[in-house]
Amino acid sequence: MKIKTTIAILICTFLLSSCVSQKKFDSLKQDFNKLSIEKSNCDSLNLLTLAKSKELQKEIEKLNNDLNKSKFELEEKKAEYEQSKKLYDQLKEIYETKLANEALTKDELKKSLRELEDKLVKKELELNEKEANLLKKEQEVKKLSDDLNKIANNLKERENRIKELEDLIKQKDEKVKNLKESLENELLGYKESGLSVSIKNGKVYVSVEEKLLFQSGKTDVSANGKKALLKVCQSIKNVKDFEIMVEGHTDDVPIKTARYEDNWDLSVLRATSVIRIMIKEGEIDPKSVIPTGRGKYYPADMGDTAESKAKNRRIEIILSPDIEKILNIIKN
């Protein structure tokens, strides 16, 4: 249960924090909502299925007991029927003998024979009813057994899907962890220059402070900043199944120039400047990179000090693992 809860939390936090285009974000969010409902329904259905399975097992045991009891009663009825028939045959023989010897009157013997015939017919009807009830119970047991097998198969199928989902999430987490370690080793020399690597919401974040990349209010990447970016590119250019988003962030100090309408403009242009270097010189596939500007709206530090504002002026390179396979498992 702990693993399944972790799965739900990982997928939830991943989708909710995914920094993709609004259209793709909304689509992933819808998929995630469907996934959450399906997962919740699947867990609830598993519990109901197990309870139903136990009830069916008890019902089958009860029916089997009734069936055995009915079989025993049927055998008793058959024995009674055979005994009555034997008595009838004996009396018939006596009747025929008495007729021959004229020891009893014909009326008395006929009455006795009619009574025996009536009893014999009654016993035969009871026997037929018992056989019909026995057949009905056998059919009920078969139906319940078929239902139980169907439920067991459905439960097994859901367990297999959950196991496959857990394996994919584990693989995804392992890729994210390995990529983070690789980047940390590659960028170790830039740690004191305002560059850090972390994992948040199932994604790898490479955060680069403004001082390493840009002059204040500028969008041209510095020479030292370019070296750091190319180091990042060297570590990620051959990585498969990851989407790369470059986010520009500013502080909350207003800016308005002939070139920049506001902080949002500045954040977007800085992101595109970084992406151009990653594509042209870092050999990153343009199809895998998305630039975006967050302006002042996603601060790294909520403080109002100069140090806090410096932390907020940054570029974040976000590496998001592909979760298409995970979503496909949930949808199917």
Task: Give a description of the structure.
It is a single chain. With 332 residues, this protein is α+β, with helices and mostly antiparallel strands. It folds into two domains: 175 residues, Orthogonal Bundle (Helix Hairpins), CATH 1.10.287; 145 residues, OmpA-like domain (60s Ribosomal Protein L30, Chain: A). It is 68% helix and 11% strand. A five-stranded mixed sheet has the order 1-2-5-3-4.
List keywords for this structure.
5-stranded mixed β-sheet; 332 residues; Helix Hairpins; 2 domains; 60s Ribosomal Protein L30, Chain: A; alpha+beta
What is the topological layout?
Layout: H1 2-16, H2 22-101, H3 106-186, E1 195-200, E2 203-209, H4 210-213, H5 223-236, E3 242-249, H6 263-280, E4 289-295, H7 306-312, E5 314-321, H8 324-331
Parallel strand pairs: 3-4
Antiparallel strand pairs: 1-2, 2-5, 3-5
Helix pairs in contact: 1-2, 1-3, 2-3, 3-5, 3-8
